[in-house]
Design a protein that fits this description.
By secondary structure, the protein is mainly alpha-helical. The chain has a two-stranded antiparallel sheet with strand order 1-2. The chain is globular, with a radius of gyration of 28 Å. A hairpin with a 7-residue loop joins strand 1 and strand 2. The protein has two domains: 36 residues, no CATH class; 228 residues, MetI-like fold.
């Protein structure tokens, strides 16, 4: 019996004209996909709820950036809400610290990007080449530990190291040098921040690269050896290409956060004498927005920085999509 075929359905074998839905139909594909991945969606559900409750619901508070808000006043009220438009944005742009804050925030993040982004990549590649399993596990564990140390503890260690009688000046005196109060010299702060941030994060950041390289087929390395490729060429032509998507994705995120320095750590190690190179947007928001009670101004500054970071993220993603095969969207 001849069957009448349609683009997205077919008649039953008895020819009675009953339409049978198949998985090729859009609705069928969606329901089949949901059934097959139901467990994965259930696993993701708590995380999605957490993000929705703590990240999306509070976003309505952005409106106080356009108000003169005081704690206790309603966000929406025809009588008590004082709408001021872009007053707080203009106040921040015309403020005496605008240039310094933007420069310091960008420069500290840029230093970390330039000097720190490649460190976990290099560490992961070298660690992947180790053949001694016990030593490899020990190095991995030791490199991960700084990530789990509290910023307060790390800041205390750093301040004790850079004091006049700290270990750094002790070594300087051993070689006949003159001790320097590093913690009060503004010129040293970018180096202190960058080195400490790299030390604290490179081991943990290397996990993604190690995971990507662990999925490489070992036969590729064996074939390369048979063709006469040494260890360096194997890294260059097999290991690095295997982690290229991961590198590009993390680079996009890093560029998208160039105006988001680690304010929590900076607050713990800076002082008024190094504001010239250490004061960033996050520390300014803490002092004037939170401690100073200028909540509308703080919200306006935070919204402004979020817009800039999103623009940088979009720009980096566009370039990645244009010049490579990888992009976030």
């Amino acid at each position: 019996m001849k069957l009448r075929k349609g683009p997205k359905n077919y008649r039953n074998r008895y020819g009675k004209g009953k339409i049978m839905k198949t998985n090729s139909q859009p609705g069928g594909r969606r329901s089949f996909h949901l059934r097959e991945n139901a467990q994965l969606y259930l696993i993701m559900l708590p995380v999605l709820l957490h993000i929705f409750i703590f990240s999306y619901i509070p976003m309505y508070g952005i409106i106080i950036a356009f108000q003169d808000y005081f704690p206790g006043k309603p966000f929406f009220s025809f009588t008590d809400t004082n709408w001021v438009g872009f007053k707080h944005f203009i106040e921040f742009f015309n403020g005496p610290y605008f240039g310094r804050l933007m420069r310091n925030t960008f420069s500290l993040s840029f230093y970390f990007l330039v000097f720190g982004f490649w460190v976990p990549i290099l560490f992961a590649v070298l660690l992947n080449e180790l053949k001694n399993g016990i030593f490899k596990k020990y190095v991995q564990t030791a490199s991960y530990l700084p990530h789990f140390i509290s910023n307060v503890v790390v800041a205390g260690m750093v301040l004790s190291f850079i004091n006049t009688d700290g270990i750094i000046n002790t070594i300087v005196k051993m070689f006949g040098g003159t001790p320097v109060a590093i913690n009060t010299e503004a010129g040293y702060f970018p180096a202190i921040y960058t080195i400490t941030s790299i030390w604290k994060s490179f081991g943990w950041s290397s996990i993604l690269y190690l995971a990507a390289m662990s999925s490489v087929d070992p036969h590729l390395y064996e074939a390369a050896k048979m063709d006469g490729a040494n260890r360096f060429k194997q890294i260059l032509h097999i290991s690095l290409p295997s982690i290229r998507p991961t590198i590009l994705f993390l680079l996009i995120f890093a560029i998208g956060s160039l105006f988001s320095a680690n304010s929590e750590f900076i607050l713990l190690i800076y002082n008024p004498m190094v504001y010239e190179t250490a004061d960033v947007i996050g520390t300014y928001l803490y002092r004037d927005g939170l401690l100073g009670g200028q909540f509308s101004l703080g919200t306006a500054v935070g919204l402004f920085i979020s817009v800039i970071n999103f623009a940088l993220l979009y720009f980096a993603n566009t370039l990645s999509r244009k010049y490579s095969d990888y992009a976030l969207w």
